[in-house]
């Protein structure tokens, strides 16, 4: 069939016989002969019969699938001309043949039959061809779906993805090289379990969802591979996703649909996708205003594996709905931590101590970040800090660091607010290094400084055998120094230390250091007598009493609100008192 004047879009058959029918498809006119068309197409028989009654020799077919190109292939088949079918045009021709009713009842070996044989013996046996054909079905819906071409393609692709990798021919893939060069030697690569994921990223969302759902339903592919496939698709279809957020040009309904579809396809198995990937999905869901159910599902999944998260992935920018002018959206992180805590309470056996400690460190690191925000509310800061259980914070150094940052950034805090903030910290869980820093920290209330000094004195007074090999915060039990706490009163604790007070407290830290060094002395100090060591302890304890007496000389001798111990002025009551079990309050 040859083209005539292209400007007039006309097609003729190269034959000596004059055409006796004109078929108009869209803007193209085909000058043909009735007999070849009527012998293969039931629809043409009906149309020609209707046109003959009206003495019209022109037939119009405006809505044939595939348009003029598909009709031309069907017409060539009617004339016995060899036609070329491939993965790119076979769906359109199949739909056109169905439209023209080129059935077996009209003639044996008709076009529909031949196309079905071509699909089953050729197209659906190939990996790449199956993907190309599936993509081409989108523009021919609903006809391609009605003819089950979509479902056949989906099943073909899913079956190949589920094959044993030992049976996979590497030629199935076309986005990875089959051979690699190693020091001049060419070797064939082993087929990885996820060999198919990059190729499926070419599919549009609706088709991709159908294929992946079918693969999941077959239950022959590990869920980690499913998770990796979803991650690859998100990175391909959402530019900027790999960097933690989608770009503004993707802030539309299409991107929202992609995120929601990926979340719905996520495997149920814990660890099948990384926590980082889940957090990036949550960030994208927030930016694209996805449904609350989608965001809630992500929060639950993240809470199950929060210990794997990286701090940088948790710093969601504020959307303005929560704290005005705040840099970060703390509410999102709070909801994730609450999910983790709920899992811990419902089934403690599922959460290991190492997991709790990892989450505790993550929360403290997050607190340190938001503490630098001048608009961060104290209420949210305290609420988040209190979410961590006591055994998840064996050492309070990082929490102290966060509190210190908050105090320095929010110098307008009242005494009461500072008291609430510092109550989060357990002074006896501070390491020696953190304690030394806290004593010299002018941002802390005197109450906290004295608390730190008290526990440092207890730590310094511990026997050498107790401290050998210690690192970080030393767990302090009951001892002979309980009377030291009796000078710590509610009224004095809220005082702000003077310059002289700070100098005295700093000098006491140096004394403490000397005592501890004495306890951890090398073999060259082994000639010191037991009496000398005992005197060292007495000096270590006596020094703070003297300093505290000086600091508090103008105050009453009421008992401490934290211990209930009597005043030091009553020698008979200055006995050792055991420390409170559990978390020590600085209130």
Automatic annotation (TrEMBL):
Residues 549-568 have a biased composition (Low complexity). Keywords: Ubl conjugation pathway. The lineage of its organism: Eukaryota, Viridiplantae, Streptophyta, Embryophyta, Tracheophyta. Belongs to the NPH3 family. Residues 19-87 form the BTB domain. It holds the Pfam family BTB. Pathway: Protein modification; protein ubiquitination. The keyword Coiled coil does not apply. It comes from Dendrobium nobile (Orchid). This is Phototropic-responsive NPH3 family protein. Residues 194-459 form the NPH3 domain. Residues 514-587 are annotated as: Disordered.
């Amino acid at each position: 069939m040859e083209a005539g004047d292209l400007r007039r879009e006309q097609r003729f058959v190269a034959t000596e016989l004059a055409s006796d029918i004109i078929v108009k498809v869209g803007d193209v006119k085909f000058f043909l002969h009735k007999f070849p068309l009527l012998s293969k197409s039931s629809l043409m028989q009906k149309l020609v019969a209707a046109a003959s009654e009206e003495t019209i020799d022109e037939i119009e077919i405006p809505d044939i699938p595939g348009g003029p190109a598909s009709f031309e292939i069907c017409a060539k088949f009617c004339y016995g001309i060899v036609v070329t079918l491939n993965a790119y045009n076979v769906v359109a021709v199949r739909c056109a043949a169905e439209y023209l009713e080129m059935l077996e009842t009209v003639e044996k070996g008709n076009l529909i039959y031949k196309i079905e044989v071509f699909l089953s013996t050729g197209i659906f046996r190939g990996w790449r061809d199956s993907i190309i054909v599936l993509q081409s079905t989108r523009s021919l819906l609903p006809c391609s779906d009605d003819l089950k071409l979509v479902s056949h393609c989906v099943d073909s692709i899913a079956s190949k993805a589920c094959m044993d990798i030992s049976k996979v021919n590497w030629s199935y893939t076309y986005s990875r090289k089959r051979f690699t060069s190693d020091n001049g030697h060419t070797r064939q690569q082993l087929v990885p379990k996820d060999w198919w994921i990059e190729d499926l990223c070419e599919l549009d969302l609706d088709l991709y969802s159908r294929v992946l759902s079918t693969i999941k339903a077959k239950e022959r592919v590990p869920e980690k591979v499913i998770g990796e496939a979803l991650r690859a698709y998100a990175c391909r279809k959402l530019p900027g996703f790999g960097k933690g957020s989608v770009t503004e040009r993707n802030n539309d309904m299409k991107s929202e649909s992609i995120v929601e579809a990926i979340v719905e396809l996520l495997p149920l198995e814990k660890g099948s996708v990384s926590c980082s990937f889940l957090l990036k999905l949550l960030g994208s869901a927030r930016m694209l205003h996805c449904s609350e159910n989608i965001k809630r599902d992500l929060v639950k999944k993240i809470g199950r594996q929060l210990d794997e998260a990286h701090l940088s992935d948790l710093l969601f920018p504020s959307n303005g709905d929560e704290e005005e002018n705040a840099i970060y959206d703390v509410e999102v992180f709070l909801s994730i931590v609450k999910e983790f805590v709920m899992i811990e309470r419902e089934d403690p056996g599922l959460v290991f101590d190492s997991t709790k400690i990892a989450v505790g460190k993550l929360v403290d690191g997050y607190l340190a970040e938001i503490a630098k925000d001048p608009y961060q509310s104290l209420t949210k800061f305290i609420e988040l800090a209190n979410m961590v259980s006591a055994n998840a914070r064996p050492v309070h150094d990082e929490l102290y660091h966060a509190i210190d940052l908050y105090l320095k950034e929010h110098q307008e805090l009242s005494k009461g607010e500072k008291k609430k903030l510092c109550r989060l910290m357990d002074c006896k869980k501070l390491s020696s290094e953190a304690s030394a820093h806290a004593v010299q920290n002018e941002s802390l209330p005197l109450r906290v400084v004295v608390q730190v000094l008290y526990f440092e004195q207890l730590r310094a007074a511990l026997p050498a055998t107790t401290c050998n090999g210690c690192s970080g915060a030393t767990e302090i039990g009951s001892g002979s120094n309980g009377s030291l706490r009796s000078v710590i009163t509610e009224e004095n604790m809220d005082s702000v230390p003077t310059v002289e007070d700070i100098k005295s407290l700093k000098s006491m830290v140096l004394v403490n250091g000397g005592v501890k060094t004495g306890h951890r002395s090398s073999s060259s100090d082994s000639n010191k007598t037991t009496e000398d060591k005992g005197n060292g302890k007495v000096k270590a304890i006596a020094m703070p009493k003297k300093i505290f007496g000086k600091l508090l000389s103008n105050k009453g001798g009421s008992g401490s609100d934290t211990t209930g111990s009597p005043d030091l002025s009553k020698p008979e009551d200055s006995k050792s008192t055991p420390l409170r079990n559990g978390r020590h309050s600085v209130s």
